[in-house]
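[#protein-structures] MJ: dropping Cell division protein FtsQ here for a structure pass
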Amino acid sequence: MTASLTDDRDLDRDDDGEPRADRRPVDRRDRRGRRPVGGVKRLVGTIVAILVLIGAALASYFTPIMSVRSIDVSGTQVLDPAQIVATSQIRMGTPLLQVDTTPAAERIAAIPRVKSVRVQRSYPSGIDITVQERVAVAFVARNGSWHLVDVDGVDFDRQKALPRLPRLTDDRSTDTAADRAALSVVAGLPADLRSRVTEIGADGVAGVQLTLAGDKKVIWGDDEDGAAKARTLGYLLTQDGTEYNVSAPQFPTYR
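AK: finished. structure tokens for Cell division protein FtsQ:
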């Protein structure tokens, strides 16, 4: 008797007994083991694109392709834009990517009248400088001249002519909480009322006082509820008096 042996491991059959097709992933190599050229082309294209970007960046950094051709200054009211540009020390023709904006902004910020500044690149070939100037809200008399101070108490300029601003009665220092409270009050007054103030002072953060034209005294109190106090004072000033108290605007007094 002849026996026929079949190795089931080598023959995978379906339910009808027919051999199944080999379902393993097909390695799409050609007979010499080479992969298709599509992947190689994509790789080469990616490398070329990266090299082009690197070349463009180097060209922008080291050549005048994207160099500074204009410097625009905005926000100035008193300062000369030419002074701002000169202080920035940014040179025309410098490649834009070589401009270090931080030191330029720091140099401009050192100008006493400058409160804040922003220096930005404006592609492809510009620099934008935005300045916020300090605004004088009062003056102090020191060493024979009039010094302008802003709402923060910063002494940023001086002039020989008497300013048309309220005088801060404390001429020793403006770097105190009481003085800053007084400056905050006068800065927040409506324009018509502020124009009548000749002096401001404070013996504490809750002790702000104003002097109006005609030597009228106003006890203001702290720098809170400024709008309500200004409205109340407007009503009181229609009455004859020399001293007005609006520190509690709901319960004002005058005499």
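MJ: nice. The helical segments are 38-62, 81-88, 101-109, 177-187, 191-194, 226-236.
AK: one more thing. Residues 244 and 254 are 4 Å apart (CA to CA).
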